[in-house]
Amino acid sequence: NAGTEADVYISVYGERGDTGSRQLLRSQKSKKFLKGQTDIFAVEAVHLGHLYKIVIGHNGLGSGNGWFLDKVVIKDPITDLDYTFLCHRWLDQGQDDGSIVRELTVTDASTFPGRQELELKREETWAAEKWKFKKGNTLQFYNRLTRGFICLSPDSRVDALGDKTNKYGKVFFMWMYA
Question: Which part of the chain is the PLAT domain (predicted)?
C-alpha cells in the first residue's frame, strides 16, 4: 500500500522563482504512483536557475491514498544538472506524522556523498527493529565463529557462556557473523 491514487502536486523553487503548484498528470507509465515504481513526468516552466527546494503532496482523495515517497530527482535540460530531493517518508494521514505534503530541500551530493540517504536508511532500520529492545525483552545473538550464544538480558547483564535458555520468556535470535 505504498502507492497512491490521489492527485499529486509539486512546486519547484529555484533562485529565480518557482513553478507554482503543478499537478503531475502524465507519467511515462500507464498507471502512475505504484509501489516500487519510478514515474517520469515532464513539467514545463521558465528556467528557475539553481533549485533549492520542492513542495510535494497529494489531495488525500481516493481509496488507499497514502503514499510512501522515496525521492524526487529533477533533471534540468538546460544545465544538464540533476537535483535530488530525498524524502523516504509517508505522505499519509494515518502514517508517520500524518502529513500529506512535504517540503524537501535539495541534497548536495558533493557535500554529502550518500550521507543523507544512509541516515534515512538507518532511521528506517531502527523504526523496524526497535521493538526488539523494549523493556522485558531478551536478545540472543548467535556467533558462528564461537558457535555460541551471547544473551543480553533486560537487567543489563551479558551472558557470553552460550546458555540457550533463560528465565525472561521472550527471546529473539539475531545472527552475528564474525
Answer: 1-105
Amino acid occupying residue 103: E
- Buried b / exposed e over 7-40, threshold 16 CB at 10 Å, is bbbbbbbbeeeebeeeebeebeeeebbeeeeeee
In this structure, are residues 124 and 86 in contact, taking their beta carbons and an 8 Å threshold? no
Structural domains in the chain plus CATH codes: 8-114 (2.60.60.20), 134-177 (no CATH)
Report residues of the chain scoring pLDDT below 70: 1-4, 30, 62-63, 109-118, 136, 138, 147, 154, 161-178
Name the residue with cell 527546494.
Answer: 53
Query: Are β-strands 101-105 and 51-58 bridged in parallel, bridged antiparallel, or unpaired?
Result: antiparallel
Dihedral angle sign, alpha carbons of residues 45, 48, 49, 50:
negative
